Amino acid sequence: MRFICSRKIATIALFSLVITILGSSSLLATVGGHSHGQGRGGLSDIPLNIGAAFDITQEIRSEDDNEFELRALELNIGAPVDPYFDALATIAWHEGEFELEEAWVSAVLPYSFKVQFGREFLPFGYLNRVHEHDFPQVDQPFVIEELTTDHGFIGDGAHLEWMAPFFNPTLTVNVGLYDNVQHSVGRRIEGRPAVARLQSYWESKDGTHAMLGGLSYLTGIGNQDLLAGRLDAGDTGNMGADRGRAQGYIQSVAGADIKYRWRPAGRTYRGLTVGAEYLTVDYDPNEFFDAVTSDSPSISDDGFYTYAQWDFDRFWGVGYRYDDSDVLFSEYTDDARMTAHSVYAEWRATEFSRLRLQYQRRDDERSEDEENLVMLQGTYFLGWHPPHRF
Amino acid sequence: MKFKLLSLLMLTLVISLSAVNPGFARLRVVTTLPDHAALAEYIGGEQVETYSLSRPLQDAHYLDATPGMIVRIGRADLFIKNGMELEEGWIPEVLRETRNRAVRPGGRGYVDASKGINAIQVPERIHRDMGDVHPSGNPHYTLEPVTSIPAAENIADGLIRIDSANSDYYLENLTRYIEESQELLEKWQAKFEPHQGTGVIVYHKHFDYMLEALGIEVVDAIEPLPGLPPSARHVAQLLSEYDSERVSFVLMEPWHDARVSQRVADGIGVELVTGCPTVGSCEGADSIFSLFETNAQKILDALEN
Fold it and tell me: Would you say B223 and B245 are in contact if contact means Cβ atoms under 8 Å apart?
């Protein structure tokens, strides 16, 4: 308790420090300058990039359970440390709690290697390394939300990345080892998770077609407790009143992802983007699971999402996403799955603000409910924002 | 003994190949824009092979960093960026990810081509209320060859830094570039002499260096502020404020909405000209000089029709 308390105080202190820096006139003049530009001035003229992202959502449900919330606030600080190291930190506010979401240092090594260490989003899948406000739709795909740790895998550890020395297609290999994996509101995956990812990118000569594909694998080393605190009452069907104690052991998580983009004549704005990601999770049930079932099977869940987005121009885009995922521990909920159809439209006013409207019809076999949901999202950036990857 | 002989033979073969094929040891130059690739080709000649990270019809303001870019830049001897915050949305990520420290800022293979450019539209203050304004001024200097002379000099400096053995060659080409660009500008300024002070409405401030050099006055923009979409109200305001006496043509880049530009041009009663924003974006615009000439000719045609 004392540890948690002191960590909170430290995080709030850090947050206050950043706000103070952001507020200082010398930096504000520069950080508030152009797009993703580097700040100059102040702090002994050391280039330092500082920015904040606001993610505000409104959910209107058919069950009259409407919700308006500041979903997340993120503060980003990043810059080269010196000719050898780069560093970035993200302090995030999610669901009423501040947490140090990312804080890592990276360094280039010989033979096309690179190492990154600290707290980081694991190099697993596609969306796992994307901040929530940069997701292609308002909400997370079910398979990410249900089968990982709410906002993906974040770990304290290090990963090594190697890029093969050829251009098109490229080949990137990541391997990482972590002391624990956790989500920003404190749900932890204990043990020594290890991750591997193989990724390739290809584009046509004129830039009309571009495609990124990857295979990821996450497994534990040592005594892992991947689901501690993951289950809430009502989540697990017939597991009974003791379900809050339920703990399982994830043996492995495997994933495949692909993203394809078509831009006629290689232009910047107008075109189609298609993405999909598949995840499968294998659990090793503990004694609690043995007690509530007759045959203690090795259980697994899987699911996927796929979406397509058409961008009319720089400002307007529309899209559709289909979700199909097991609910957590689907074996214990009669193989219940969640499916959903979502349509959405977005308006990108500038590089620094974006509005989205999304309608979703979801079918949750667990509760046998069909739900209609309308979501509004406003995303706003102050100062610097880390550049986007394909 | 056999191994030694074999090694000697291989070494001889490699040396022979490099002597026979002048491209064998060419410097790899990676640029953010096709325009700088063209400039590097002019200054570097047969000593360089170039690759542009952005395509001719892509707006370099808004690109995503891709793994392909990271590998390309990782193998470069020289990296040239446009600068003036044009590529700040994506190039810092590429430079952060690259394994090639020499092409990062401060490295000997890094060139910010905008150093020394006599920039226009440098804001006195910076505020996001002003739209997507660049603190260092208008970054589209490559549309006018004389304004681009400092960029050519920066590129020559970069090439000499990594390949001093050919410095005379690079300096000769630089001198030739300076002379040719001045001659070219004088030639076109003479052609535009009757049109001095002619007004134009642009979509975005992309061609302003060229327009200013030719004596064309940018009276307004279809974007209400840089980077913002044109509102119906702003378009209506343009139509009520300007007529064909004040504005002689409307000029846009091919990646913007032609319908809005056409509406403005039709409403005023003038021609819509779609300019070539980069080297390679139009037929015949395959160098900095031909890019300038192609755009100048398009505008002249519109003015004289």
Answer: no
Chain B: nearest CA to A201, how far in angstroms? 6
Distance from the A161 Cα atom to the nearest Cα atom in chain B, whole angstroms: 10
Q: What is the largest CA-CA distance in chain B?
A: 89
- DSSP single-letter state for residue A220: -
Nearest by CB to residue A37, choosing from B88, B98, B106, is: B88
The Cα–Cα gap between B233 and B242 comes to 14
Question: From 3.40.50.1980, 3.30.830.10, 3.30.70.100, 3.40.50.1100, which CATH number describes the B192-304 domain?
Answer: 3.40.50.1980
List pLDDT tens digits, range A145-195.
Answer: 888 766 678 889 999 999 999 889 999 999 999 987 865 444 456 668 899
Partner-chain contact A172 B67, CB within 8 Å: yes
CATH architecture of the domain covering B15-181: 3-Layer(aba) Sandwich (3.40)
Packing angle of the helix pair B149-162, B167-191 (nearest 10 deg)? 170
Instruction: For the beta carbon of residue A151, count every other beta carbon within 10 angstroms.
Output: 23
Residue showing tokens 């440098």: B122
Residues from chain B that touch A83, judged by Cβ atoms under 8 A, are: 101, 104, 106
Separation of alpha carbons B298 and B273, rounded Å: 7
Identify the residue with better confidence: A251 or A5.
Answer: A251
Distances (CA, A) of A383 to A12, A43, A319, A386, B247: 20, 16, 28, 10, 37
A9-30 pLDDT, tens digit per residue, is: 555 555 555 555 454 433 333 3
Average model confidence (pLDDT) across chain B = 92
Interchain proximity A83–B64, CB inside 8 Å: no
Task: Pick A267's closest partner by Cβ from B57, B72, B257.
Answer: B57
- Top-level class of domain A52-72+104-383: mainly beta
Judge: B55–A207 Cβ closer than 8 Å, yes or no. Answer: yes
DSSP string spanning A136-200?
A: SSSSPPHHHHHHTTSS--EEEEEEEEEE-S--SSEEEEEEEEEEEEE-TTS-EE-S--EEEEEEE
Q: Could A266 and B127 be called an inter-chain contact, meaning their C-beta atoms sit closer than 8 Å?
A: no
Residues B67, A33: C-beta atoms closer than 8 Å: no
Q: Which residue of A has its CA nearest to B62?
A: A268
Is there a contact between A54 and A132 (Cβ–Cβ < 8 Å)? no
What is the least distance, in Å, from the CA of A109 to any CA of chain B?
A: 7
Query: How remote is the C-alpha of A267 from its chain's centroid?
Result: 28
Q: What ipTM was assigned to the predicted interfaces of this complex?
A: 0.85
Taking only the tens place, the pLDDT of each residue in B74-128 is 999 999 999 999 999 899 999 999 999 999 999 999 999 999 999 999 998 888 8
